[in-house]
């Protein structure tokens, strides 16, 4: 097997590591490409290609994350990871997709944001992909003992933020199907009964798309806001496509021309929807596309439809 074939065989793993460290599809793809360039330029053949390339993509991702954190501190409004369509993901390892799905969820990636770049990298390599500490130490440039301490701290932070009850995968899918049926019908009561009493709906527009100023809280308010969207969106030809997004039930919204303008993800736990996260920043949707809609023009069209057909 030549170097190109070896690299392509490991590409899904490299992307999976980089995306979990960075929370960005575009930055993860760049990190994987940089790893290829360094691999192609290396004059020697390592004992383990997997360990070598995993270390390279980890180091690149740590450097990118350190600079990205400055930008995220200046981000307008809530910051969410770039959505990943895991039911159509070309980087997905089908044999381990279900096993790795929870580590891809929006809630898990947001918990990872609490960690330092080194803690995040160590946690991803150890807890998600099962790397041994010698390989992790080589990847992050720290001793075995230091990596063990980083892993303990990271695990503690993650465990503190994790929900107490996990949802069954089939249960999530059935609940999501009922949710989107009620949403398409504008059924306030149907939506309300699926939502947790303290459900929160949050949008990530990054100042580049219209979004509500604060999270919307409570089952009644969220149900009414969701139902109010439906008829104007129907009138301007918006289509809601259910998808698995970051290993969780969700949907992609497209305008009448097929352009993407929203990725919505449901956080389902204990038989109810606990959170609804909406990514509407067009910069975070380009990889979902292939064409992204103008969110401001779409909002104006929806407002006009609402005025003309109250």
CATH superfamily of the largest domain: PhyR, sigma-like (SL) domain
User: How many domain units?
Assistant: 2
- The N- to C-terminal Cα distance equals 64 Å
Indicate the proportion of strand residues. Answer: 5-15%
- The geometry reads as globular
Q: Please report the number of helical segments.
A: 12
Main sheet specs: 6 strands, mixed
Q: Identify the CATH class of the largest domain.
A: Mainly Alpha
- What is the residue-averaged pLDDT? 90
Number of strands: 6
CATH topology-level name of the largest domain? Butyryl-CoA Dehydrogenase, subunit A, domain 3
Which regions are unreliable across 5 or more consecutive residues at pLDDT < 50? none
Strand order of the largest sheet: 2-1-6-5-4-3
Helix content: 40-55%
* CATH A-level architecture of the largest domain: Up-down Bundle
- The Cα radius of gyration reads 21 Å
Q: What is the chain-wise order of helices and strands?
A: HHHHHHHHHHEEHEEEEH
Structural class: alpha+beta
Blueprint of the fold:
Blueprint lengths: L2 H20 L2 H17 L7 H25 L23 H8 L1 H7 L4 H12 L4 H8 L3 H18 L7 H17 L2 H5 L2 E10 L11 E2 L1 H17 L3 E7 L2 E7 L5 E10 L2 E8 L15 H14 L2
Parallel strand pairs: 1-6
Antiparallel strand pairs: 1-2, 3-4, 4-5, 5-6
